[in-house]
Amino acid sequence: MRCRARRAEKSSSGNCATPICRRTRKPDRIHHRSRRIIVELKGKHVDVAGTRTHYYDVGQGEPTILIHGGGPGASGLSNYRKNVEALAARRRVIVFDLPGFGETEGKLKDGPIFEAMGDFTRAFMDAIDVKKASFVGNSLGGATSLMVALRAPERVNRLVLMGTGGSQAIFSPMPTEGLRRMAMFHAGEGPTLQKLKGVIDLLVFDQSSITEELLAERLKAATRPDVIDIFKRPPLDIWRENLAALKHRTLLIWGREDRVVPLDSSFILLKTMPNAQLHVFPKCGHWAQWEKADEFNALVADFLDRP
Question: What is the rounded average pLDDT of the residues 85-113?
């Protein structure tokens, strides 16, 4: 098996880009492959308003920030391990762990979760000296990305939102089964592997794509003492905000079988945001970037590359 490392080029700041290692392996080993790439890139930490924040920074070009969802044990790596290599081929990709997730401390200001995470994300951008970026956000990460765009539109280039929170379902009864299971994850006897599997199974259409390694990784992250239970925070209906003022090009991505944030939650965003378009994956749940990784990577790369 051959590995071709891209020559590190100097950025405008004088820093060298991290080489991206490309290997060809069987599809069922992509989980392990991507984890090795991330380990080779070496995670970094930065202080963000007193919160020790973990992130990865790879590639050269326009910054694109990937923000993970809020399910139990979520992190930047667990959400985007199938996407980082492909997206970093032509741009700078930054993947960070939100407060209380992954390896980032659980320190977050009070208030509605989407608002607080949006403020934290802007502070994170300041800490790593990124003035403006495109955003790719799943679920909680999508809502966080929207809050950045609403509160500081000049800091956002384009938006890619997958099964984003903060909208309103038109037909589907709420809360969905997926949201109910997430809300009960910390209740009663607390987090268990069985509860976690019940949540993760609802994130995807095809449960065979979920590995034991992924479950173990997320259970460990979900039981850390300073984890943030987003369901204990007051809600914020982003769809009531002035979304019509957002002129950013926006790609909405949904799984047709999403059982956490149903497809009809996309309609208000599609109708209200003037430059939004919608792509729907069939036989796909809440985790489009995982279940449809190759198609997702090509779709997002093409959208971000358009003039």
Answer: 96
